Amino acid sequence: MDEFAKMKGATILSVDGAVRDSEDVTIVTDKGVMTLTHIPDCCETVRIEDVTGDPADLVGGLVVVAEERTNNDAPQPEWAESWTWTFYEIRTTKGDLTLRWLGESNGYYGEMAWVEWKPADG
């Protein structure tokens, strides 16, 4: 199971940082904390390009879908030699949220956010 999918079945308590151009998102649930982050390196950037849905709508909702998808298709960023689009989709009983991240580099650096799940009991 991928890290992001570990949120499934949890109730969302708060969502912080889910805005355009952010490099850090924290989702607190009753079962743990999900962090999506990026620490910049030499020749790359990774940030949220678009947010679909209102993060506030998720609060109090039970996560029924937590899915990560990637592609290297269009639209091609204007200046990137290499790029990855990553979609983090959360569907809850109260609302939905999709975070579209764009990672750009010269082809030698990571182009995705780092995803970390910290269970509440550990």
> Order of SSEs, N→C?
EEEEEEEE
Please mark out the parts with pLDDT under 50 across 5 or more consecutive residues, or reply none. Answer: none
Structural class: mainly beta
Fraction of helical residues: under 10%
Please list the strands of the largest sheet in the order they lie side by side.
1-2-3-8
State the end-to-end distance: 18 Å
**Radius of gyration, taken over Cα atoms and rounded to an integer in Å:** 14 Å
Mean pLDDT: 91
Total separate domains: 1
The amount of beta strand, in percent, is over 45%
Question: How many DSSP-defined strands?
Answer: 8
Shape, principal axes of CA atoms: elongated
Specify the number of helices: 0
Largest sheet: 4 strands, antiparallel
Summarize the structure in words.
The protein has 122 residues and is mainly β. It has one domain (4-119). The protein has strands at 12-16, 24-29, 32-37, 44-52, 63-71, 82-92, 96-105, 114-119. The strands form two sheets. A four-stranded antiparallel sheet has the order 1-2-3-8, with no helix packed on it. Strands 4-7-6-5 form a four-stranded antiparallel sheet, with no helix packed on it. The chain is elongated and about 40 Å long. The mean pLDDT is 91.
Highlighted features:
single chain; 122 residues; mainly beta; four-stranded antiparallel β-sheet; 0% helix
List the helices and strands and how they pair.
Blueprint lengths: L11 E5 L7 E6 L2 E6 L6 E9 L10 E9 L10 E11 L3 E10 L8 E6 L3
Antiparallel strand pairs: 1-2, 2-3, 3-8, 4-7, 5-6, 6-7
Task: Please outline what is shown here.
With 122 residues, the protein is mainly beta. The protein has strands at 12-16, 24-29, 32-37, 44-52, 63-71, 82-92, 96-105, 114-119.
